[in-house]
C-alpha cells in the first residue's frame, strides 16, 4: 500500500486547479494491478487524461547511433549535427494537431531529442514554435507531447548525452492527424 497526501493552497487559485496522477514502476519487471482511492475535503473530479492520438497515425522507426552519427548532445557543438535526423510531415492546414514523440534506448544511455519546425501550413496557431526539446536527458526513455501545433514540416534529432555512445534506438510518433515520418540523415 502507498499513501500519498497532497496539500494545496486553494486561496491562490482563480478557478480549478489540475493535477496529473501517474501510477508507475521504477523498473518494470512484471505487470501490476492496482486500485486507486481518492479522498478530499473539497469537491473534485478524477478522470482519465484525454488520449488525442489516433492509433492509425502511429509510426515507429528503428534507428541507431553508430560511428560518426553518435554525436552526443548540444554541448558537443562539433559533433551534435551528425546525429540522425528524421522528418515529420503533418500534411494538413489544421492548427489543432496533437503529437506524442517517444525515444527508447537501452537504459544505460541518457537520451533526449530536439524538434525544430521547418515550415508551417497555418500561421499564428496556438502551439506554434521554432524549436523545442524533450527536456533533461533521461536513462533509456524520454517523451514529449506537442499540443495544438500547426500542420507543417518538423525535424526530430535524437541524441545521447555523451558522444561516441553507439546504440540502437526506437523513435515512435503518435498523432491526432495523418503524418509521415522519414529519415533525412
TrEMBL record:
The keyword Ubl conjugation does not apply. Signal peptide: none annotated. GO terms for biological process: proteolysis. InterPro entries: Calpain_cysteine_protease (IPR022684), Calpain_domain_III (IPR022682), Calpain_III (IPR022683), Calpain_III_sf (IPR036213), PalB/RIM13 (IPR051297). Keywords: Hydrolase, Protease, Thiol protease. Residues 55-182 form the Peptidase C2 calpain domain. The keyword tRNA-binding does not apply. It holds the Pfam family Calpain_III. It comes from the Eukaryota. One of its GO terms (molecular function) is calcium-dependent cysteine-type endopeptidase activity. PANTHER family: CALPAIN-7. Belongs to the peptidase C2 family. This is Peptidase C2 calpain domain-containing protein. It comes from Rotaria magnacalcarata.
Amino acid at each position: 500500500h502507498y499513501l500519498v497526501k497532497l496539500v494545496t493552497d486553494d486561496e491562490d487559485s482563480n478557478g480549478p486547479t489540475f493535477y496529473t496522477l501517474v501510477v508507475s514502476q521504477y523498473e518494470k519487471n512484471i505487470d501490476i494491478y492496482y486500485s486507486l482511492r481518492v479522498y478530499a475535503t473539497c469537491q473534485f473530479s478524477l478522470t482519465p487524461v484525454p488520449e488525442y492520438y489516433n492509433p492509425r497515425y502511429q509510426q515507429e522507426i528503428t534507428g541507431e547511433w553508430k560511428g560518426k552519427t553518435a554525436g552526443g548532445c548540444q554541448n558537443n557543438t562539433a559533433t551534435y549535427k551528425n546525429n540522425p535526423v528524421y522528418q515529420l510531415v503533418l500534411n494538413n492546414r489544421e492548427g489543432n494537431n496533437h503529437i506524442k514523440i517517444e525515444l527508447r534506448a537501452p537504459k544505460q544511455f541518457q537520451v533526449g531529442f530536439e524538434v525544430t519546425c521547418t515550415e508551417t501550413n497555418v500561421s499564428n496557431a496556438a502551439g506554434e514554435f521554432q524549436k523545442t526539446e524533450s527536456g533533461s536527458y533521461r536513462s533509456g526513455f524520454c517523451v514529449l507531447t506537442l499540443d495544438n501545433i500547426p500542420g507543417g514540416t518538423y525535424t526530430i534529432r535524437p541524441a545521447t548525452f555523451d558522444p561516441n555512445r553507439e546504440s540502437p534506438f526506437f523513435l515512435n510518433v503518435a498523432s491526432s492527424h495523418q503524418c509521415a515520418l522519414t529519415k533525412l540523415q
